[in-house]
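ENTRY TYPE: paired fold submission
RECORD: A
CONTENT: sequence, then structure tokens
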Amino acid sequence: MIDQITPIIVPVITGLAGKNPDEAPEIFAKFFAALVGVLLTVGSVWAFVNLLQGGLEWISSGGDKAALEGAQKRITNAIIGLFILFASWGLYVVVLQFLGFSPIGGGGGFQIKLPTLF
């Protein structure tokens, strides 16, 4: 029988060093929230870049029908990607509210927090 729970010792991740294993669910929740924030940020930037690139392709198509259709397809895909991205974020918020968490701030107002790992 183990009388004492040893703290987490992970030399690679310094934020976990010395933590109690009982705090693992809280640490995992913070990590998952940060991961979702990073993925949403990267996805938004990627869609914006594709939207700009599609616009530049449209402008520089010079009347070429194939280039114009390619630019339209890129713009359409970027807009659909943004819609899917924000719909998934909305679903994430609804699921967290259903589970009793407050992903958009405890005071009822919207708070912007930059994602951090720990």
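RECORD: B
CONTENT: sequence, then structure tokens
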Amino acid sequence: MTTTGTSVFLLDVDNTLLDNDRFEADLKDHLEHEFGAESRQQYMDIYESLREELGYADFLGALQRYRVSNLDEPRLLLMSSFLVDYPFARRLYPAALDVIQHLGNHGRTVILSDGDAVFQPRKVQCSGLWDAVSGRVLIYIHKEQMLDAVVRRFPARHYIIIDDKPRILQAMKEVLGDRLTTVFVRQGHYALDPDNSKGYRPPDVVVEGIGDLLELDPSTLRNRATA
């Protein structure tokens, strides 16, 4: 439990602070180069099926399932190294760390992400995001269902959620109401697909890229929640 502050900034990771699309493209290229196009497709099919089953991306879990049907391929053991040693710091969006510092001058910054309990924390650590928020990292299976826990851990008068998914923004807005300002970052394949925004209420703030937040006065974001 931390002391109640004026504002807490809840920052998503994938395609918000970090270019996860680029990581996935590199993973596909690596799979095809090492094992062929058919194996790449097999892995990605398992990955998508597992994401549908679990509700979050599980790259290591998909690798484990993929290995079951390819037990006689010793090179697969090196795939774990590709994943856990991937240079995620190179995949941060320009100005991502500057934005965290900028927001931190006006409140407490917290990483709030969906994901598994191994690979996602590793990604946050290797990218430098863990240190950028001084270890204030929360990773859940469905973060929109964990707002009570978030509020208990980081109590504040107002929250600002920064995310690339309108679904997440609306779900949190329905719980916190005017105590929450929703900021939609229009970057990454999910955010840029108009079908993924249909049926959801407009966010309080829309930016085209995470770096655009450097041009905003964070102290004014609180007023956008009731505008």
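NOTES ON RECORD B: DSSP finds eleven helices and six strands in the chain. The longest strand covers residues 156-163.
STATUS: closed
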